[in-house]
């Protein structure tokens, strides 16, 4: 018996993934986190807390959603979690993020200045993410 699709179903999995990514980035806080991570390459939660000046719990919830949408990937080092862009994400997503980084350069510079007040990255990591 042939399976039929109703009007609300889709056969295109990439459409579903595209919608998930767009929905995830439609929130200003999640977009800000994503653009900062895209700009810096990799950041840990403590660096993000300092840069965006939001509570750690809120940042962690947003990062989890971005991870589920396959925009970010994480790397665990002891009890610390570091985030970076998912480099297997579709090219259109990476191009969109590059365009948005350019459009938000002034705001990103403010966030980077907050990071730099923590010191350079090795110093920041030793202060906020000490290895145990």
UniProtKB/TrEMBL annotation:
PROSITE patterns: HTH_ARSR_2 (PS50987). One of its GO terms (molecular function) is DNA-binding transcription factor activity. Transmembrane segments: none annotated. Residues 10-104 form the HTH arsR-type domain. CDD domains: HTH_ARSR. InterPro entries: ArsR-like_HTH, HTH_ArsR_DNA-bd_dom, HTH_MetalResp_TranReg, WH-like_DNA-bd_sf, WH_DNA-bd_sf. Pfam families: HTH_5. Keywords: Arsenical resistance, DNA-binding, Transcription, Transcription regulation. GO terms for biological process: response to arsenic-containing substance. The keyword Transcription applies. This is Transcriptional regulator. The lineage of its organism: Bacteria, Pseudomonadati, Pseudomonadota, Gammaproteobacteria, Alteromonadales.
